[in-house]
Amino acid sequence: MKILKRALLVVGLITVCAVSINAVQQDEEGASNGEKKNTITKGNSNKSVAASYRIEALPMPDNLEFAGETVPLEDPDVHERMDRELLVNTYWQSNALLLMKRAHKYFPLIEQVLKEEGVPEDFKYLAVIESGLTQAVSPARAIGFWQIMEGTGKEYGLEINDNVDERYHIEKSTRVASDYLKKAKERFGSWTLAAASYNAGQYGIDKQLERQKVSDYYDLLLGEETGRYVFRILAVKEIMNHPEKYGFNFDEDDLYQPIPVNKVKVDTVVKDFPDFAEKFGINYKILKVHNPWLRDDHLKNASRKTYYIDIPEEGYYPPAK
């Protein structure tokens, strides 16, 4: 048995040496022919990493604006900060493509509400960077597309309890965000500063403007998160508006599609949402997908408040089983 083990060991060592010598010879041959050494050898083919994947510097757009307000790209600091966010968001390809897919589904509703509320359409990109257009919950318990805290939500009229949480209601939470942003615009006179205040708070921005004796977001020295905040919005806007320029290729069929819904009026107790859903030919999961603000499997509604529950039009989902 020992003799067999030694024999196998010797054979293994000879094989390793042969492979190593062969690899060295291939490297030397490549080098002598003027080829790069950073090659991947697989079978009989050599494939350069650089030939299959390239990371390139991105040209800065000639001009950028947010909500009609010009970005001073001639400022070297602003230029570098903008470049950083373009690079980060372009080369995080999977995330950027997911955002584009989701945007096709949710932007029509958000755009409609922003227009009705008199808020520039560019603020839809604020929702993108806040939540990735998902019903996200932050460690601080900010919730929904617009990442609204409980106190803020209640202050602006949202119902928030164990049974109903309207921070998850896309239309209603967009209206709350719009109200906040309009008040911030009135306070600061600038949509850009209003956007920054969504992250740092209106008092926080006001304090820094007074302390630093400036009046423009791009002149402020801010903490890491708020200092990047508007630039992240701008980068997402630029990439999503010009996807091919940044290497993203897709057809409309690749994007997530908005699903038409009918609004069903409910002003009574609903004892069991699985049974309620079945009446409309869908299951409980689909009901909650379209109404994430319903937080339980029933609706108490002792006050007989009127709610409108979204029911997807027939034919978009398989029949409930």
From TrEMBL:
Its signal peptide is 1-23
Record carries keyword DNA damage: no
Domain Transglycosylase SLT spans what residues?
114-217
Tell me one Pfam family matched here: SLT
- Transmembrane helix in keyword set: no
**Biological source species:** Christiangramia crocea
Q: Specify the superkingdom.
A: Bacteria
Q: Which residues form a coiled coil?
A: none
For this UniProt record, the keywords arranged alphabetically read as follows:
Signal
InterPro entries noted in UniProt = Lysozyme-like_dom_sf, Transglycosylase_SLT_dom_1
| Family statement | Belongs to the transglycosylase Slt family.
Kindly give the Gene3D superfamilies that the UniProt entry links to this protein: 1.10.530.10
Q: What is this protein called?
A: Lytic transglycosylase domain-containing protein
